[in-house]
Design brief:
- The complex is a heterodimer of chains A (about 325) and B (about 500).
- Chain A has about 325 residues and is an all-alpha fold.
- Chain A folds into 2 domains: about 70 residues, no CATH class; about 220 residues, MetI-like fold (Orthogonal Bundle), CATH 1.10.3720.
- Chain A contains 13 helices and no strands.
- The mean pLDDT of chain A is about 90.
- Chain B has about 500 residues and is an alpha+beta fold.
- Chain B is built from 14 helices and 22 strands.
- In chain B, the strands form 7 sheets. Chain B has a 6-stranded mixed beta sheet with strand order 15-19-14-18-16-17. In chain B, strands 4-5-7-6 form a 4-stranded antiparallel beta sheet, covered by helices on one side.
- In chain B, strand 2 and strand 3 form a beta hairpin.
- Chain B is globular.
- The relative contact order of chain B is 0.15.
- The mean pLDDT of chain B is about 95.
- The chains are: A mainly alpha (about 325), B alpha+beta (about 500).
- At the A-B interface, helix 2, helix 3, helix 5, helix 7 and helix 12 of A face helix 6 and helix 12 of B.
Chain lengths: ~325, ~500
Amino acid sequence: MGTYVVRRMFSTVAVMAMVGIFVFLLLRLAPGDPAAMIAGKSATAEVIAGIRQQMGLNDPIPVQFIRWVRDILGGDFGTSIFAGRPVLELISQRLEPTLSLSILTMVLSATVGVCFGILAAWRAGGLVDRILTGFATLGFSVPVFVVGFFLIYFFAIKTHWLPVQGYQPIESGFWPWLMHLILPTITLSIPYLAFIARITRASMLEVLSEDYMRTAAAKGASSYSMLVHHALKNAGAPILTVIGLSFAGLVGGVVITETVFNIPGVGRLVVDAINNRDYPIIQGVLILVAGLYVLINLAVDLSYTLVDPRIRY
Amino acid sequence: MVMGSFLRAFDPVSTTDDTSQSHGLAIFDTLFALDSKFMVQPQMVQKWGISDDQKTYTFELRDGLGWHDGSAVTAADCVASIRRWAQVQSGGQLMMKRVKDISKKDDRTFTIALKEPLGLLPEILASAPPLFIMREKDANRPATEQVTTNIGSGPFKFNEALSKPGASITYDRNEKYVPRRDRADGFAGGKVVNVDRVIWENIADQQTAYAALQAGEIDFIQSPSVDLLPIIESNPDLRLQVLDKGGRILLLRMNCLQKPFDNVKSRQAILHLVDQEAFLQAAFGNPKYFRTITSLFGNDTPYSNDENTGWFKKGGDPETAKRLLKESGYAGEKIVILQPTDWAESSNATQLLAAELRKIGANVELAPSDWGGIVERRAKMGPVEDGGWSLFITDHSNYSTTQPHTNIDLAANGKEGWYGWPTSNEYESLRAKWLEAKTLEERKALAREMQKNYWDIVGMVYLGAYVQPSARRMSLTGLIGMPAYLPMWNMQKVSG
């Protein structure tokens, strides 16, 4: 397994390098000029040209690329064109909100989604199955911003139970942190929960029709033991894959929820950076998210060995 | 507080962005400032005088000026700041053409020596974007390189520990700031801070911002979207307030270097085509917040006039526009209109413009992109086939029309000027006289002459004027209403 992990770590570096090259070139080819964005709406072309020169944006693209690679290899992801602060510092400021939201969302989605999936498979074709399948379809169909505003209206504006927006770091206390994350977590969980429930149901249905399940029933195993110990364990690999990929997707893709609830996370950081053409931030975030994505995939692959002893690396 | 756009650039000198200027007003101070009647008042300056030959100005700083790092503000800081500001701001560039020397005399006194008299010097020093005074070591950096230390001598201190660029910016009251004794008046007077802390939140979604305002989580939205205005108006806890009563002017720039708008007749065609009310309706919806505009010098300014405004009539005149376009020799060349997809009002007006042009037989193509894409493309002078452009819509403040000597939108100096690059030597010779005019009456007369010429050459076309109401909770009072920028002193939060 050690060799496998090392090989995968090398592939992570290769993926990050490819993402880096791709993003760097794409940004230079895309329309837009950070110097013009800094200078403002009424700036003259002369002033913008001066800022471009100062920022080194007039250098040939290969020169800019070599400079950037050299800095990255030295652990320097650059400095934000607008904020004037190191990119890593800005990303680290935004990681906590995004990770908090992503982890809570995954915990809620996985717990409830897997339970719903098991229940639906257990009572396949029955009323419970129909209700849960209907909920899953609805969860997929309703956009997160609609759910978000609906929750804000009832739980923040009408009842004042929860805040409308914003984020409190965990160091300011567990409850303030949690209170600010309840509505965004529920909002973001619904589509993931629905997805996990559907995958769990499908996997469980496949396993429940296997011969060994009939054997377990003949042995007199309880419903709980059959579902959790026999069926779920065998249906676990695709569920783990979905949970892992969903988590990876969440870290880089929670921008709508972050926007609706004004959570200063990585998604908002990168969208603002794209609007401002803040190249160092875009490059830094995308490379790190790509690395994270690959690492989460690795963790998912390794976790297969926990649910299926036949898998060896 | 939620600002019209979130703070992107910290250095208010290297940008013309309005939010950066509001940031500057919070943490920096200025030598002079405009009061609510746009008259120049001393701010950091205690007293100032001019030599008998009108060529040397002497300025003395007032007592008690100190930087947020604890050191004292000196004349050397002012000299370096003026030089840096003059590198990029049009008023400063204009001034430097006449400046022989700027030097400090002692720690509190400096002089500006001129090659020839410049009566408007105090106005230039007070004009927008403001001349913010920075520490000498910051101001010694090129103006094209951003200063992000955020250490000023203004009434607020930047709280770096609590600020998260792009997410929230925190300002604390500068306890050591010594306000002038006068009453707060526009950007001038005593900058008395009545709150301990101000936080700017970057709430990108307007609906969320409104919900937060309603729930009392925030106190102020500088530019609520048009669709939210009726809802805000009906909420008894909230109030809409127009802070910039002069408002802004939506305007159309035409590429005067390329076909078809290199021909004055085609530009005149646009002038006749535009039905301002229709454009304003498309862009802003509610007539309560917009009005038409015919004077180059804005609505209700000292220089507003009706010279050469015969082209204006309610409803536009497509027939005349069609005739003029034909007379210009237009042969179906492609007209590319830049459409900002992230600026709803301008985008709507752009689509209407395209429809109106098609009606008179023009071959129009929209080029949608975010504003970032437009600011890059608008700099291209070449033909549309080489990535150039024909038309784009932008805006400027109504107040800025009173400063034709510094407002680059109002220049007609060809390639040296602003995007669109109209050229008129006659107009430029009139504009140059603005600095020489000694009285208001002389400037008023000059404004009429300039306007007569400008609406003949049609360097740009006005689409209408609008005001942007801000939304605040009733508990937030004392906001100062001035064009474009938001001063935060004087405001207070009362219970309830």
